[in-house]
Write a structure and sequence with these properties.
eight-stranded mixed sheet; single chain; five-stranded parallel sheet; 13 strands; about 425 residues; alpha/beta
Length: about 425
């Protein structure tokens, strides 16, 4: 048997497509077995297993190296991916790879980790059928980057950035902030944006003046059958570059809001748009742990009160632990400076969240009311300059493209003085 075929590798180079740094590629459901020889490698593999891009994978880490892997797969089927720390003696390694190839299933991919940093050694192990070889010292991120092209979708070279909006309490305005941010991304950056209203009681279709015959519930029911064509039939245009996947209180989304269905929908949407925004129900969002691990950015929308602070701190702690990346979490402090109300200051929020300073959006009582049912675009409204610039800050945090140009009167004068 050809070793290249035994380890599921086709001869010749297979370069991976370029992926925007903001849009992490998600690994499909895989069974991964890793074998190490040194404690340092074991710690690196544990960090690799905790990466949020592997949220759907089952990773098993064992001591013993190549010999243990060979003995095990003589008795049981091999996994989708093998990661093995190997020795430095090339002839012994060839013999071990021959024995391993005889015990592994054809679909199994092999990633080797070793101490030899030599191009001839690398070419030898690749010729023997290994999918890739990483030389020590190796970091967990490098292993993820090496594994991703082996199982990634090669038909779509680029993926859009994904973001979830979650309200820390009812009425915090997460849906309004999601709509305003999506509108800003579409208008300010000229990017294709898909806004998915996944709240069973969502009303973004009404706010945008859209009459929806089909809703997100119909899309989620498709499950694995969902493709770009089916999704496009349900999307409703809101403004240039912005399309809405609407929800309706009459839709039985409670039964279809499952992790697998949402992940599949986002996978299809992110291949067709530069940004995919999800408006998630706060009461159900915690049940979508895999979705929140895979998503690129999470925006918590809170009000400046004690209940929101308590819930935001709980959400921030839970998400930081689940995702392992606090830098991709953002907090929006909405409805600040509301008349006749005592408020918690933004700095107090930042202190309670471990230094995560919130983006402040001022109170605007007529913002949603004047938007509802008219379909008037955010950038066409005479919103307060502080509110528009706040939405720009949220869009900048999501896109990672830097501070957008300020808006408002005398903008040209301020720019000329710089």
């Amino acid at each position: 048997m050809s070793l290249a075929i035994a380890f599921g590798r086709t001869p010749g180079p297979q370069p991976a497509p370029d992926v925007p740094p903001q849009a992490a590629r998600w690994l499909p459901r895989l069974v991964i077995h890793a074998y190490h020889q040194r404690p340092g490698t074991a710690e690196t593999l544990r960090t690799f297993a905790a990466d949020r891009r592997l949220a759907r994978c089952t990773v098993e880490i064992q001591d013993g190296g190549m010999a243990r892997a060979i003995a095990r797969y003589r008795e049981e089927p091999s996994p989708d991916l093998l990661i093995v720390e190997c020795g430095v003696e090339i002839n012994a390694l060839r013999a071990s790879l021959d024995a391993l190839a005889d015990t592994c299933l054809p679909h199994t991919r092999l990633l080797l980790i070793g101490e030899t940093n030599d191009i001839r050694f690398y070419r030898t192990v690749i010729a023997c059928g290994a999918s890739d070889y990483l030389a020590q010292p190796v970091e967990a991120a490098a292993i993820v980057e090496a594994v991703t092209p082996l199982f990634g979708d090669r038909e779509n070279g680029a993926f859009g950035t994904t973001v979830a909006f979650i309200g820390t309490r009812g009425g915090a305005g997460a849906s309004t902030v999601a709509l305003g941010t999506a509108s800003t991304l579409a208008y300010q950056f000229g990017s294709q944006v898909i806004l998915a209203d996944l709240d069973p009681a969502g009303a973004l279709d009404i706010a945008a003046g859209i009459k929806a015959e089909q809703t997100a519930a119909d899309v989620l029911k498709e499950g694995p059958r969902l493709d770009a064509m089916l999704l496009d039939r349900v999307l409703k245009p809101v403004q240039p570059n912005l399309n809405l996947l609407p929800a309706s209180a009459a839709s039985p989304m409670q039964d279809t809001l499952s992790e697998d269905a949402v992940v599949r929908m986002v996978e299809v949407a992110r291949s067709a748009a530069g940004f995919v925004a999800l408006d998630l129900p706060g009461g159900r969002a915690s049940t979508l742990k895999t979705v929140l691990q895979l998503i690129d950015k999470v925006v918590l929308v809170a009000e400046p009160d004690l209940v929101s602070l308590r819930n935001a701190r709980a959400w921030h702690g839970w998400l930081s632990q689940a995702r392992g990346d606090a830098a991709s979490l953002h907090v929006v402090l909405n409805k600040t400076s509301t008349p006749k109300r005592l408020e918690i200051l933004p700095q107090q929020f930042a202190d309670a969240l471990g230094g995560c300073r919130p983006i402040v959006l001022p109170f605007a009582a007529w913002m949603l009311d004047s938007y509802s049912g008219t379909g008037e675009l955010i950038h066409q409204k005479r919103l307060p300059r502080s509110l528009k610039n706040g939405l720009l800050q949220v869009a900048d945090a999501i896109s990672g493209r830097g501070q957008a140009a300020p808006t408002g009167r005398w903008t040209w004068l301020r720019q000329g003085r710089r």
